[in-house]
Every structure is written in C-alpha cells, then in structure tokens.
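Quick one, tokens below:
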C-alpha cells in the first residue's frame, strides 16, 4: 500500500470514495462532484492524498489551506478523511494523517485543524490517539449562504 499525492488525472479513481464520504455525511451523489475535485486540484485550492494498493484506492484525505490570526501562520484544514469500510482498522487513516502532517511541516504551517460529526466516535478516537486536541475554548458555527 502506498500513499500518493493526487494529480488531476487521479480524480476519477478517487471519486467513488469521495461519493461514499459524502453519503456518510448524508449527502446525495452529486454529478458536480468530479468537477468540484478537479477544480480544487487544478486551481491548487486543495491537496489530496490517497492510499492505493493493487486492489485500487482504499482511502483519501483532502486538505484546504487557511490562515490563523491567533497563531500568526498558515494552517491546513483536514476537511475530508475517508477509508473504505472493508479497509478500516489497517492504519490507512493513520498513514493518510501522517502524510498530511508531513505536508503541513513542509509548507511551514502552524497547525492542522479538523472537525468531525459529534456521533462519529471512531474518528474522534483516532484523532485523539494521533494527538489532536479537542478545542474546548471555541465553538464552531456555520451559516449556509445559498
């Protein structure tokens, strides 16, 4: 199994897992998803790492760049992390996070932030074991602007 940094040509093989990730978060398959991923990569608006073996793509993570005024530096938002159910418990998510941390260090970011569903206890345990700390100082709010 190898962890690779995605290029535009990899979008079609990552797409089925992207759909599955979005379905996990109760979103329908959207025909615009491939274009969304392609645009992010072609405009250098995100970085995608994916795990692949001889059977195909096993998981992926997508990072978005950001900045932190409080920490006076650049950041990465680990927005998406998904591993195929049949490939879980094999350290694939851990290796994808490893690659994300390596990338953050190489780009001199000051932190990686993420959020996950309150009910997603498995992911929360993974993040805690890896060393992520729950932010007890801030609540995160969202406003849809459609």
């Amino acid at each position: 199994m190898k962890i690779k940094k995605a290029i535009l040509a990899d979008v079609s093989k990552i797409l089925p897992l992207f759909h599955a990730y979005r379905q996990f978060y109760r979103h329908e398959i959207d025909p615009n998803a491939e274009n969304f991923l392609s645009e992010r990569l072609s405009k250098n608006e995100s970085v995608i790492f994916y795990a692949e073996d001889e059977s195909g793509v096993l998981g992926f993570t997508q990072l978005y760049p950001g900045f932190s005024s409080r920490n006076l530096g650049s950041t990465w938002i680990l927005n998406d992390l998904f591993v195929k159910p049949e490939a879980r418990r094999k350290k694939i998510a851990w290796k994808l996070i490893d690659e994300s941390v390596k990338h953050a260090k190489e780009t001199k970011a000051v932190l990686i932030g993420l959020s996950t569903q309150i009910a997603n206890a498995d992911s929360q345990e993974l993040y805690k074991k890896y060393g992520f700390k729950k932010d007890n100082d801030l609540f995160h709010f969202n406003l849809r602007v459609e």
